[in-house]
Structure formats: C-alpha cells, structure tokens
Amino acid sequence: MPSSPAGASSPEPRPVADQTAEAGSDALPTALPDVAPQLRALRRRRGLTLEAAARRAGLSPAHLSRLETGRRQPSLPMLLALARIYGTTVSELLGELAPERDPVVRGAAAEPAEADGWTYYQAGGPSRAMQALRVRVPHSTQGDLVRVHPGEEWLYVLDGRVRLALGDSVHVLDPGDSAHFDSLTPHRIAAATRAGAEILFVHTLMQSAAAELCLGAGALRR
Predict the structure, then answer these.
(1) What is the C-alpha to C-alpha distance for residues 118 and 194, in angstroms, rounded to an integer?
(2) How far is the C-alpha of 132 from the C-alpha of 134, rounded, in Å?
(3) Rounded to an integer, what is the distance from CA 25 to the centroid of its chain?
(4) Other Cβ atoms closer than 10 A to 130
(5) pTM for the structure as a whole
(6) In this predicted structure, what is the pLDDT of residue 113?
(7) Burial status of residue 189 (CB atoms within 10 A of its CB: 0-12, 13-18, 19 or more)
(8) What pLDDT does residue 197 have?
(9) Gyration radius (Cα) of the chain, Å
(10) What's the confidence (pLDDT) of residue 119?
C-alpha cells in the first residue's frame, strides 16, 4: 500500500451506516414515501439534537440532516435504527397510520378468560396503558400470594364482599366500595363471601415482566 504524502492526515472513517447508505446496497425502493418530515418531527419530539440522534444511529450529523431534508433516502437498516431511537415503528416512520381502535367494548362480545379460578372479562380496549377488567373472584383464597409491581390499581366492588390486604392493613369492602392504591405496596385480593365477589378492576399496564395481572399468577387461558 502506498504511503500518504508527508504531512497529510488520513481521512476520518465515516460511520458504518453512512458507508452502507452511500453504497446503496440496502437502499429502499424509489417509491418510498417522503419520510423526511416524520424523521425530523420524531427527533424533535424526543428532544434530541441532530448530533445526538446521529451518534446513536451510527450516522454523521450531515447524513442525518440530508435524510431529514429529503436529499437522501434512508436504507432499511437506518430506518430500523432510527425507529428504535425514537421509540416508534418503521410503519410510523413511513407515515402508515394504525387502524382506529373502537372505544366501545360491547358486553355481549366479551369472552371470559380464566386464571387460577378467577374469571376475567375485558372491559377496556387492548394495548392501552390502562387496562380495565370485570372480574369474578372465587371464595377460595390465594393463600400467601402477595403481589408487588410498578403502577397503580383501582377496584370497585359490584357484588359480594372483598378482602383487600395492603401492607400490614386489611380492608373489607362491600358493594359500592372502592380502593385506589400504589401497587408497589404489597397487596392481596380475595372474596370474603362464600358465593364469591365481582369487581371492576383497573391497572396500569407496565412494560415489565413483573407487571402481570396482580389478581392471578397463571397465564390467562380461554
């Protein structure tokens, strides 16, 4: 390999993603929707500077700027990297809208699911940060099963009586009573009447393995 002329410095290597884009081997079809406005809007929504976003994506600021102004089309690996950084999906980057979710849940269409003898009916929309359920609680208790996880919980007694243990306190709730508590407090819920109880139950859906339904340990099954 020939040596560089005296006094000349070697050019600084470009980020890998830049090199891939320039080569064009992963370029998307020319019919790709104009993603430039989406890229810019999502970066700003995340509160990231051009330099910070480019660094995380393995791009140069100049190259990301060209993507945001529409002077270059992103490759698929770039879209995947940017989607991860901005906490979104490639579909959103491409401007594809998710189908509108029906805000109404019909009681006649709600199919029961069971876990550890508890019966659940969906009372809210799926994939929401807040999950609402109508729950039939059997008289049999869960023994010493206590739940602790991030989030909040709210319950309202429709029928029967419910025994709610929160930390060192035990509360007996009658129909019409409700409770709202931080679910990092150790808690246990059980029916206090032999006929069981029925409650409305709302909890925050945390993206964590620890955030399973605090009313039952088993996997839901039809």
Answers:
(1) 14
(2) 7
(3) 33
(4) 13
(5) 0.51
(6) 80
(7) buried
(8) 95
(9) 27
(10) 85
DSSP code, position 72: S
Question: What is the C-alpha separation between 165 and 48, in angstroms, rounded?
Answer: 44
Distance of alpha carbon 209 from the chain centroid: 12
Phi-psi region of 198 (alpha: psi -120 to 50; beta: other; left: phi over 0): beta
Residues 110-113: contacts with CB under 8 Å, at least 24 apart: 110/134, 111/222, 113/220, 113/221, 113/222
Contact 116, 191 (CB under 8 A): no
Reading the block at residue 6, the tokens are 């005296």
Q: Is 95 left (phi over 0), alpha (psi -120 to 50) or beta?
A: left
Apex 201 CA angle, 153 and 162, nearest 5: 95
User: 198: pLDDT confidence band, cut at 50, 70 and 90?
Assistant: very high
The pLDDT of residue 86 is above 90: no
Read off the amino acid at residue 159. D
pLDDT in the model for residue 114:
75
Task: Give residue 142's Cα distance to chain centre.
Answer: 29
**pLDDT band at 61; cut points 50, 70, 90:** very high
Q: Which residue has the tokens 């994939």?
A: 127
> Tokens standing for 153?
């919980």
Provide the token pair at 80.
């995947």
